[in-house]
Amino acid sequence: MRVERPAWIDIDQDRESAARLDRDHRSKSLDSMVRAVFESQKGRSQEQIDMRTRQVLGAPGRLAPQLDGWLRAAVRPGFLDLGCGPGMLLAAAASRGVSGLGIDVSLEWLVVARRMVEEHGGRATLCAGFAESLPLPDASVPAIVSLDVIEHVADQRRYLVEIDRIAADGATLALATPNRFSLAAEPHVNVWGVGWLPARFQARYVYARSGRAYEFVRLLSVPGLARLLRRHTMIRGRFVVPRVPDDEIETFHPRRARLARVYNDIAESPLLRWPLLGVGPFFRYVGTRRARSTPTPRDSHTA
Asked: What is the CATH number of domain 11-179+221-243+279-289?
C-alpha cells in the first residue's frame, strides 16, 4: 500500500530485505530475526546490535505500565499503531487481549512485527504504507497511537491531516516525540544543540560535529506541534511531561543516570514540571478528535 512519496528507506530494497528476512529466519527465534535486521544496518557495532536487540525484545514489557497510564484511552480494540516498527506496542496490547492495526513504511520491520505479535498471543494485522497517505476510510479509526514517528515523516502537516481524516469523532490520539529544544543531546545522532539551530543549518552542523547524515529528522517543540494541530486537525488535548523509565536509566552512564533521576523528580513535582515542556528531552500529547460539526477551541497545555 506504499505510494510514491519521499522516504528514509529505499522501497525496492526494503521489499527485498523483507522477503529475505522472512525466508531465512521464518523457522528461527524472534531474537535471531531482530538481530538480523540490526546486523544489516551499516555502521552498527556489535555492542549496538546487542543493545538494540535487547531493547526491542524487552519493549512490550516496558510498555505495559504505559497501557495503564497515558495510553489507557488510546489502546483499545481496533486502535491504529501508526509507525508500529517491529510491533512492540501491538505485542504489549496483544498480551492483554487487545488487537489493533499496525502501519509502517518498512516492510522488513513488519515481518518482525508479525512474529512479535504472535509470540505475545495475538494475531497481527499489518500494512506497509506511508503515514501521509493512509489506506483507510474517513472517520474509521477509534483510536490512534503514534510513538516517535512525526519527527521522521517527510510532510508533518500531511501526516496530521491524514490522522485527522481517519479518526472517528471522539477518537483518541496519543503521540510521543523528542523535544526540539531539549537541553540534552539530539537522540538520533547524540549531538548537542541541534534543535536550537534553524532547520536549514541542522544537517550541516550534525555532519560537522559527527560526520553523520541528518535526513528525515525534524524535531518539534511543544508550541510547534500545538500550532500544527490547531491549523490542520480537529484534535484538541493536552501535553504530558513523561518520566524517563527506570529500566532505561539503568543502561546510562553514572553521570547521565543521575541527571535522569533529577529530571524524574522534577517531572513528578506539580510546581516544577512545567519548564520541562520547553526544555525536557521528550514530551507526549493526548487528544480527542472533535465531532465534525463541533467548534474547535484552543489546545490546553496542561499535563
From this structure: 3.40.50.150
pLDDT digits (tens, 9 = 90+) for 228-255: 999 999 999 999 998 887 777 887 888 8
What is the separation of C-alpha 164 from the centre of its chain, rounded to a whole number of angstroms? 17
104 has which bridge partners? Answer: 128
Whole-model pTM: value is 0.91
Convert the chain into a string of H (helix), E (strand) and C (coil): CCCCCCCCCCHHHHHHHHHHHHHHHCCCCHHHHHHHHHHCCCCCCHHHHHHHHHHHHHHHHHHHHHHCCCCCCCCCCCEEEECCCCCHHHHHHHCCCCCEEEEECCHHHHHHHHHHHHHCCCCCEEEECECCECCCCCCCEEEEEEECCCCCCCCHHHHHHHHHHHEEEEEEEEEEEEECCCCCCECCCCECCHHHCCHHHHHHHHHHHHCCCCCCCCCECHHHHHHHHHHHCCEEEEEECCCCCHHHHCCCCHHHHHHHHHHHHHHCCCCCCCCHHHHCCEEEEEEEECCCCCCCCCCCCCC
Cα separation, 228 vs 160, in Å, equals: 8
Q: Has residue 66 got a pLDDT over 60?
A: yes
By DSSP bridging, strand 79-82 and strand 100-104 are parallel
